[in-house]
């Protein structure tokens, strides 16, 4: 025969069984984790066992999260390296076309064009730029007006026109 339970022990057991049932029912919302529900929780009647099963499942999920994070870091490093290679290859093409004095190169899959870029303002010290080049609404530099003034031959302390540059345009057919 079994032990006689006290009313407090029976209430505790009823509470634990209710909590275990609620835990199982709540876990059914994790429709994408059917293994958790089927293999670890549905068969458990004891609340402590059910919680231990959920903890075990969380540990397995953490292993997946950690593994994916490591893989993402590795892929980000590969992504950055690939972007760097693209930039360096683009610069090599630009350099070769410039040295070869080729303005446009038509290939079956792409047309390459080397063109000069317009001179732009190179602000060396914003604090020295006269107030007329600042937009009154909010204190931002009116770069367009500053560029026009510099192109017009005006000397403005704190700014100068750079030497322009070369730009490679790639259009895909």
Structural account:
Helix 1 (7-27) packs parallel to helix 3 (47-99). Strand 1 and strand 2 (110-117) form a beta hairpin. With 173 residues, the protein is of the alpha+beta class. The chain has 2 domains: 1-101, no CATH class; 103-172, no CATH class. It has 4 helices and 7 strands, in the order αααβββββαββ. The mean pLDDT is 85.
Strands, count:
7
The general outline is elongated
Low-confidence stretches: none
Largest sheet: 3 strands, antiparallel
Mean pLDDT across every amino acid position: 85
What's the order of the H and E elements?
A: HHHEEEEEHEE
- Counting structural domains, the number is 2
Number of helices: 4
Bin the helical content. Answer: 40-55%
Strand order of the largest sheet: 1-2-7
Multimeric organization = single chain
Instruction: Report the β-strand fraction as a percent range.
Output: 15-25%
Tell me the Rg in angstroms: 35 Å
Determine the structural class based on helices, strands and strand pairing.
alpha+beta
Q: Span from first to last CA?
A: 86 Å
């Amino acid at each position: 025969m079994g032990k006689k339970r006290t009313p407090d022990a029976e209430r505790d057991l009823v509470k634990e069984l209710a909590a275990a049932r609620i835990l199982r029912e709540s876990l059914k919302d994790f429709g994408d984790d059917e293994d958790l529900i089927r293999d670890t929780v549905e068969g458990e009647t004891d609340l402590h066992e059910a919680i231990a099963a959920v903890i075990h499942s969380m540990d397995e999920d953490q292993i997946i999260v950690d593994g994916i994070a490591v893989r993402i870091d590795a892929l980000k490093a590969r992504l950055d390296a690939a972007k760097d290679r693209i930039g360096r290859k683009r610069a090599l093409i630009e350099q070769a076309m410039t040295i070869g004095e080729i303005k446009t190169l038509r290939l079956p899959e792409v047309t390459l064009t080397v063109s000069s870029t317009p001179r732009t303002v190179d602000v060396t010290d914003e604090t020295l730029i006269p107030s007329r080049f600042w937009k009154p609404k909010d204190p931002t530099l009116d770069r367009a007006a500053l560029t026009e003034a510099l192109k017009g031959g005006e000397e403005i302390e704190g700014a100068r026109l750079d030497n322009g540059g070369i730009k490679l345009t790639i259009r895909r057919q």
